[in-house]
């Protein structure tokens, strides 16, 4: 039996000087468990893809790019995503705030995640805070929180629930669809554990 039973309902997101979003930009998602589909419409270049990327970065951090920990490549990527106009004006408020409801262990909890960045010597340094039901989580609790998120909703599954309509045509490309669906079922039924184990063993042998 598959143990994944992750239920997440987004409540709101705020992007401040991230991507094309200059200044504070707040969006509310009024959904419930019966009506839980959100459609975001806008012209090309209006920031739809950036919005989805921001949600994913807020939840996964470096894992968004496939890295298990912070590194220079991740920070360079983030630096490239910060609003250029705000950087030119030497502003200091760069962050993503994400609020969502999570149904776990028979009860509903509300989480607030904020990733903010400070610019030091032309490099971005990240700070992460997480609140659960308005209570600030300690560092070890934050680590456990993101580990649980990654386990219950891996990035590969995220893309099946939060996707960009502009690239949905890939689902109709047989070769790409076949590969995507295979990866989806591998993760969904925990078959990917064998692939992860193989990768970890290779790293161990090299060390």
Which helices and strands appear, and what pairs or packs with what?
Elements: E1 7-18, E2 21-28, H1 48-60, H2 72-81, H3 84-88, E3 94-104, E4 107-120, E5 123-132, E6 135-136, H4 139-152, H5 155-161, H6 174-188, H7 192-206
Antiparallel strand pairs: 1-2, 1-3, 3-4, 4-5, 5-6
For the biggest β-sheet, the strand order reads 2-1-3-4-5-6
Distance between the termini: 35 Å
Radius of gyration: 18 Å
> Regions with pLDDT < 50 over 5+ consecutive residues?
none
Can you give the mean pLDDT?
81
- Please count the helical segments: 7
DSSP strand content: 25-35%
Helix content: 25-40%
Largest sheet: 6 strands, antiparallel
Mass-distribution shape? globular
By secondary-structure content and strand pairing, the structural class works out as alpha+beta
Could you give the order of the helices and strands?
Answer: EEHHHEEEEHHHH
By DSSP, the count of extended strands is 6
